[in-house]
Amino acid sequence: MLYLHQFLLVAHIIAGSIALALFWVPMLAKKGSPLHRQSGRYYAYLLYGVSLSGVLMSAMVLVAPLYFKAKYLSEGADPAVVADNVRAMATFLGVLSLLSWASIRQGMLVLQLRHNAAVLKSPLHLCTLGLLLGSGLYLLWLGQNKAQPLYLVFAIVAVLNAVGSLRFIFGAEPCRNAILRQHIGNMLGSAIAIYTAFAAFGGRGLLQLGTTGQFISWVAPSVIGIAVTLWYNRGYQLQRSSLPQAR
Fold first, then answer.
1. Does 21 map to a domain?
2. Number of folded domains that form the chain
3. Rounded CA gap, 19 and 201, in Å?
4. Could you report the per-residue pLDDT of 169-191, keeping only the tens digit for each?
5. CA distance 186 to 110
6. Is 247 within a domain?
7. How far is 93 from 84, CA to CA, in rounded Å?
8. What are 46-78's pLDDT values in tens digits?
């Protein structure tokens, strides 16, 4: 099982690294162009792999924390405390992976609404959003219990994402602008998840940041991502409003 976990980790890192770079191609390409559509599709495939491997690794660590993370068992450390802390981090990373999956799935499926009105109501997608909502609420409790502001921040993000997606699915029939906003917001949301995961590794390992620096590096992708989403949607609205109206 250690080899399987290691294989998933390597695949997770490789796919995530490629997705980090590929994200900017559909982001900057002309909307609706072949380049935008094709690169966006490849980005989605990579995110599915990143998310699934992340969920699987988190589940494995939750089941056997000291088996997969034995390196944290330093001399004199209480195994029960170590296992509890490892499970907490695995829960957080699992929610982050689930958030990435739900975001990319919602962002891609919403484009099919014009051809299939029930596409967002598939049992798999609804179960995913329900699981994201439940795990987000659990992470919220965990963050309060452990006084971890980082858990609290992303628990709220996960809950809001799930609730927002469900409201969109079961709300009134959306207009074209609402569909595009949902697509843009969720695609950017998926990018926030992978950039946050990268910051989790880089801020703690590569950059050797302190506690405050790590927290900032983890939260910064969300803050920047929300700002970019607002700017992107505003730019799209201005672009559409400048077009001549049909008479």
1. yes
2. 1
3. 16
4. 998 788 888 888 889 889 988 88
5. 10
6. no
7. 14
8. 999 999 999 999 999 999 999 999 888 887 788
SS (H, E, C) the chain: CHHHHHHHHHHHHHHHHHHHHHCHHHHHCCCCCHHHHHHHHHHHHHHHHHHHHHHHHHHHHHHCHHHHCHHHCCCCCCHHHHHHHHHHHHHHHHHHHHHHHHHHHHHHHHHHCCCCCCHHHCHHHHHHHHHHHHHHHHHHHHHHHHCCHHHHHHHHHHHHHHHHHHHHHHCCCCCHHHHHHHHHHHHHHHHHHHHHHHHHHHHHHHCCCCHHHHHHHHHHHHHHHHHHHHHHHHHHHHHHHCCCCCC
Residue found by looking up tokens 């990435």 in the block:
100
- Token couple for 5: 């976990």
CA distance 241 to 76: 66
Cα 49 from Cα 93, distance rounded (Å): 15
Q: How far is CA 208 from CA 74, 121, 202, 215, in A?
A: 20, 44, 8, 12
> Which residue from 92, 97, 91 is spatially nearest to 50, judged by alpha carbons?
97
Q: Exposed, middle or buried: residue 45 (CB in 10 Å: 0-12, 13-18, 19+)?
A: middle
**What does the alpha-carbon distance between residue 103 and residue 81 come to, in Å, rounded to a whole number?**
33
Asked whether residue 44 is domain-assigned, the answer is yes
- Global confidence as pTM: 0.83
Other CB atoms within a 10 A radius of the CB of residue 177 amount to 12
User: How many other β-carbons are positioned within 10 Å of the β-carbon of residue 202?
Assistant: 15
In a domain, 246, yes or no: no
